[in-house]
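Bench log. Compound arrived from synthesis this morning; before running ITC I wanted a structural hypothesis for how coenzyme A sits in the protein. Inputs:
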Amino acid sequence: MISLGLDDLAAVQTLEQRAHPLPASNAVLRDCLRQYQCWGLRDNAQLLAFIIWQQGPFELQIFNIAVDPEQRRRGLARRLLGHAAEYAQAQQLDSVFLEVRRSNAAAISLYDACGFHEVGCRRAYYPQSERGGAEDALLMARPIF
Ligand SMILES: CC(C)(COP(=O)(O)OP(=O)(O)OC[C@H]1O[C@@H](n2cnc3c(N)ncnc32)[C@H](O)[C@@H]1OP(=O)(O)O)[C@@H](O)C(=O)NCCC(=O)NCCS
């Protein structure tokens, strides 16, 4: 597990483009690397997966998690979420929290498998495509004991 910073921007952008159907913009990723905690898993020079989170007073909020399409179902996302939970525990936070598109079945299965539960919904929160429309965000949380 390595900490990522602005020096890793190009690698994070490349992985974001490969991983997400509607990737975050380069400007958003730059801001994330500046302001938030970003952690990654690497094989030699190649970035395989990353997670980005912000620490609040009581909870850790995950903004993004992405795994290279060729590296999926090898437990990389589970490792990154485990790292987030360990960090939250060390900081004595109450929970880890995130938002996910209702249609993102793979991510919802991952979060279920990692102890997250649905705690709410933001209606029409995400843009659905460049042509318009909107999709609900499910709010999911995992308590930290
Ligand atoms: C969602 C994502 C991060 C999962 O990464 P991953 O490294 O493949 O996940 P893991 O290998 O750690 O999977 C752990 C468990 O999650 C569940 N899971 C993960 N991907 C799944 C899928 N496509 N279908 C069903 N269950 C899945 C399984 O229970 C899996 O355990 P198993 O492989 O023993 O069955 C990855 O598919 C991805 O990058 N998607 C695009 C980006 C994205 O949607 N990010 C989430 C934004 S909220």
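What the model suggests: The chain has a mean pLDDT of 95. Residues 2-143 form a domain with the Aminopeptidase fold (CATH 3.40.630.30).
ITC booked for Thursday regardless.
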